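MODEL INPUT / OUTPUT PAIR
PAIR INDEX: 1
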Amino acid sequence: MDIPISNEVVVAFGRFFHGGSGPSHSELTQVFQSSGCFSLDPYDEVQRTPNKQTRILKVGNALLQSKERKKASEFASKLLDALRIYGAFGHRVEKECVDALCAAFRNLRWELNEEGRLAFIGGIDLETGGRQALDEQLRRLQQNLEDPAVLLGVAKDLIEAIGKFVLEEMARLPQGKLSFRGVLALSFEQLRLRPQDTDTDAPGGKQLREIRQHANAIAGSINELRNLQGTGHGRTLPTGVSAEEARYVIRQATLLAELMLSTHDRQMGRA
């Protein structure tokens, strides 16, 4: 999968080279050569200009304008390699540089770990990833709550993908496009997780119905909060929603995801 870049990512990369810090000019040249961006580099070896930060910004902005995704991906990948070798994700660079780059990639739904390695945390491709992709996305969401504004969308996508997975495996996925609420309603029906499916006369039945009502409400809240964020990068939490409250909703979403998957496994004889 291609690594995306944005203006925020390019600027964050440039911060590692401010004031002459970071890998050398020759190492930068190797990065540009190996990523196919050498022709975009304005560096003059005789004059030794421009400085390293400007080189990064010039090449990065040229890639953004050209919309060459493969080259942009290689640019990001090779730069991260050079920064890891330099020790940028250890003690040699101020934490602010690393934090800025992490935040920039999170806005593109990529997670940069403490070792400087990237992992995609965006949408889930069921056709190529299947159940393994769902489990991996759930694990990432459980372990990373640092940016709830971005992860609201990740949680919503996960719940929707699980719903489609359930319907597909049970041969109940309709043709055509389904809304989030449509996917949720049909998958909950197949999983028998609807409040109306509860036998309230059985011991604990009334409490179980309330739990199922809560599960439905959490899913709906995730979808509505995500819609309030609008589109585009750099999303923020809706006005009035604190980071703590958003994290609470995301944690509830991971529990709902576990409930849906484990219930489906039991129904399919895998539990």
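PAIR INDEX: 2
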Amino acid sequence: MKKIIVSMILAFTLTALVTGCNSSKQDESKNKVSETDVQNQEAKQGKLEGHSLFIFCGAGMKDPFEEIATEFEKLTGCVVQVTYGNAAQIQTQIQTAKEGDFFIAGSAEEVRPVADFVDESKELVKHIPVIAVDLENSKHINSVKDLANEGVRLIVGDPEATPIGKIANKILADFSIKDKVEIISNTATAPAMMTALETKEADAAIIWKENVNEKKAKILDTDEMSVYIKTIPAAKLNTSEDKEAQEVFEEYLDSDSVKNIWTNFGYEMAE
């Protein structure tokens, strides 16, 4: 009986020792993986010290793109200079200065006038136009044509200078209500539209989805606007003076980090 008990104790002790060794090896393995990950991250840091990028970006994407550029600088050490403006301004700069690494445009149409300076383009996120109304939808707007109802005050962007202004103009024309709507301002910025809806100076706005502050306004639930969805592209310019930095930034645009920044600002990823 004593022999049996001693044998059981020995077997249990050996099992515990083996399990402990295996656990120790697994912990060591995990530590090695963790250390490798850290080393990989550290290897990326400062990879482009002394390099620089010059990027053009539509003014409407300033908030997310500033964060994207800042994170890239922190990660690589590359200096990123970004010029923001409307499409016409940026197109003129690219054509006259013949410099730059990327053009982050409001739509593919905005890239066409500078096609001779573009190597390739990749789709980043969707630019979705919506109708926003005051939180109570006090004028009972349920469709595009309701914008022409008596007493409805509409606010839109500049059709000569902004993509959303041009789209608003086209929407009103396509639905044959351009001459029937009451437009209180056609040069409004997105913040101005939100303020007008919140203070009820306006009843509706045609605006990009990502610019709607849902604490101040409500997005109209209608699929009438789906045909006007645009895609924001990153046009890779052939005027780059730093091809290495350009290639690394192009890869960075596909990272989860960048995708999270876009989605945090209300954008939907391009399919």
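PAIR 2 NOTE: The helical segments are 2-44, 62-76, 87-97, 163-174, 190-198, 243-252, 256-264.
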